[in-house]
Amino acid sequence: MKSHLPSLAQVLPCPTEPPERSNWQEAEEILQTSLPSDFKDLIDVYGAGLIDDYLLLAAPGCPNDVYDLIKLTNERTEANRSLWEFEDAPIEMQDEGNRLICWATTDNGEYLYWLVQPDDDPEKRCLMLNDASGETWERFDMTVTQFLAAVLTGDIHSEVLWNRFPQEEHSFSSALSL
Prior knowledge:
By secondary structure, the chain is an alpha+beta fold. Helix content is 28%, strand content 17%. It is built from 5 helices and 7 strands; from the N terminus they run αααββαββββαβ. The protein has helices spanning 5-11, 24-31, 37-46, 69-83, 144-153; strands at 49-51, 55-57, 99-106, 111-116, 127-130, 137-140, 172-174. The chain has a 7-stranded antiparallel β-sheet with strand order 6-5-4-3-2-1-7. Strand 5 and strand 6 form a beta hairpin.
């Protein structure tokens, strides 16, 4: 899958100052998997931050720990494990070794993940979105940059995300400024 970062940059203004570089090698060692290159490119250009005052884009090692991909993933792994003791996990999680890495969340408590499967190709991972109740899941077979560009232009719609997202004029605020 290719990066749709140029398409995204046409609709979502890039920050005027470049973000701190993420330590991708360390993050991938901690997560025990490679991360998709389009996501690394996205974070290298935008950094962690808030899109349209709603979607919190996470980056590994972000000093504003609300936006730290590693911390967010660890918290969601534990929360989902507890939830799935009493409720059904999405069907994609029923295969042995499948797991989720959380790359974004929202002000309303929705979570956006990659589905990581044993020996998968990080460039072909699907996205899984979960509503605030934890019961509704959506799957998108596309990259993060493709998803963000498509949702911000209205080319795709999510039933999980807030109905007031996206806004008409798109904004990005660095996590370091929040």
